[in-house]
Specification:
This protein is α/β, with parallel strands linked by helices and 424 residues long. The protein has helices at 31-36, 68-85, 109-119, 142-151, 165-170, 177-190, 208-219, 245-261, 313-324, 340-352, 360-367, 376-382, 397-400, 403-409, 413-420; strands at residues 22-29, 41-48, 50-51, 63-64, 93-101, 130-135, 155-161, 194-201, 225-230, 265-266, 271-273, 289-292, 298-300, 303-305, 331-337, 358-359, 386-388, 392-395. Helices cover 36% and strands 21% of the residues. The strands form four sheets. The chain has a nine-stranded mixed sheet with strand order 10-11-9-8-7-6-5-2-12. Strands 1-15-14-13 form a four-stranded antiparallel sheet. A hairpin with a 4-residue loop joins strand 10 (265-266) and strand 11. The longest helix has 18 residues, at 68-85. 39% of the residues are buried.
């Protein structure tokens, strides 16, 4: 490898990264890009950028606030955005819907009902679109969960991160084992079709044994999905240290062995599932997603756009205020327009990071060339990080553990320079 990157440098889940986005010289109309993806299946995403407490490791676009009137004003803006965009997206078939943040279940029951009504403007009803929502322990109460269950939410994801109070303190989270267990019991009793728990490894002071303790405890609540995330030290967060790479990797390998023994299928470096999946039927890398809300990203063919990404609380508040003052949501102000070559890079990165790998025939059909022309694959094969079959190129089990490292290797110099010179 000719690029000395740490195995755990940053999450590799999309391309180009949001720090490669820049303000457009003039507003970009969404109309030609919506025409480009007309007739496609698409995902709808609503971003709720509010939390009652900002965790130390978090670099997401979220503001620490509980101000009810402010949140209501934000939801009214999101409704106004939806009213402008819905007529333009009649050519899309929204088959999935996600509400993320932030902490979406910070919203009251009436506010959640308002949000679901807003989704209906796009023809999205929970009976015909796979719907997922995120929460944290303090908001997984009976009233909110009842609403989600009755509405038809398919997937609930809860961030636990650790079942050890000292590790939660190290993450600058509130240690609250009683409320954690109450929330998990409540979700389990609701019997949502998909129930996910998030955990973090690499916390300063954490050991393989303490991470496995948290993992075993999570399994007692019978989730059929688990996401395990390595801890990263990132700009703008309150975490300045973590365990070394080799310790993190031992935690990761121990978790993989335990979950495999429990019947879980690993689909990426982070995701493990214990339910039937049809994901293998869908290629990654050219998905269509329309987002509403400040901080949500949209992918419309060659156009990727979002409000400006930042991690500073004061800056996030300013971006949200600017969003609420917006009058025209049919144009993009900030983002990235992908070239044909960048679409190829996106296709490679997104598919390679997934357990099914890159379909050779599909790649040739889309881009008119063979994957054999990419020399980096030979280097990865020499490391035993990828394997090749007549049908595909995919990561080995060893390679999956190096996903974030490997993904970084495919980022072109121009994109990397944009990321490295981004002003937060």
């Amino acid at each position: 490898m000719n690029q000395p990157l740490s195995r755990y440098v940053d999450y590799m889940y999309s391309y180009p990264h949001k720090t490669a986005y820049r303000p457009f010289s003039s507003p970009v109309s969404l109309l030609p890009y919506l025409e480009q993806v007309k007739g496609r299946n698409a995902s709808l995403y609503f971003h709720i950028p509010f939390c009652s407490h900002k965790c130390g490791y978090c670099n997401l676009f979220s503001l620490q606030t509980n101000r009810g009137e402010y949140i209501t004003a934000y939801l009214n803006t999101l409704r106004r955005q939806a009213q402008q965009l819905a007529p333009l997206t009649a050519g899309l078939a929204f088959d999935s819907f996600a509400i993320g943040g932030g902490t979406p279940l910070l919203l009251t029951v009436p506010q959640l009902e308002f949000l679901l009504d807003t989704a209906a403007l796009f023809g999205v009803y929970l009976s015909n679109a796979f719907t997922s929502i995120e929460t944290s322990p303090e908001y997984a109460d009976t009233a909110r969960l009842n609403l989600l269950k009755q509405a038809g939410v398919a997937r609930v994801s809860i961030g636990i991160q650790s079942f050890q109070d000292k590790e939660l303190i190290a993450l600058k989270r509130r240690p609250r084992q009683d409320s954690i267990c109450q929330a998990l019991n409540a979700i389990q009793k609701m019997d949502f079709p998909y129930f996910n728990i998030d955990l973090i490894y690499g916390i300063k002071g954490q050991t393989v044994e303490s991470f496995l303790y948290s993992l075993e405890k999570a399994l007692r609540f019978q989730p059929n999905e688990l996401f395990i995330y390595p801890l990263y030290v990132r700009q703008g967060t309150g975490i300045t240290e973590r365990e070394p790479d080799d310790v993190c990797f031992r935690m990761y390998r121990a978790a993989c062995e335990l979950l495999q023994a429990k019947g879980f299928l690993q689909t990426s470096m982070r995701r493990f599932i214990h339910h039937p999946s049809t994901d293998a039927e869908v290629s990654c890398g050219d998905e269509v997603m329309l987002s509403c809300g400040s901080g949500g990203r949209s992918y419309l063919g060659d156009l990727h756009y979002a409000t400006r990404y930042t991690v500073c609380q004061q800056c996030i508040a300013r971006e949200i205020d600017e969003y609420m003052a917006t009058t025209d949501f049919t144009v993009a102000q900030n983002g990235f327009i992908l070239s044909a070559k960048e679409q190829q890079q996106r296709f490679i990165i997104k598919n390679l990071m997934y357990y099914t790998g890159i379909d050779k025939a599909e790649y040739t059909r889309r881009f008119g060339e063979s994957l054999d022309r990419i020399p980096l694959f030979r280097e990865l094969a020499e490391q035993h990080w990828i394997e090749e079959t007549p049908e595909c190129i995919r990561l080995t089990s060893e390679g999956l553990g190096y996903s974030d490292y490997i993904g970084q290797l495919f980022i072109p110099l121009g994109i990397r320079q944009l990321m490295e010179t981004y002003s937060y």
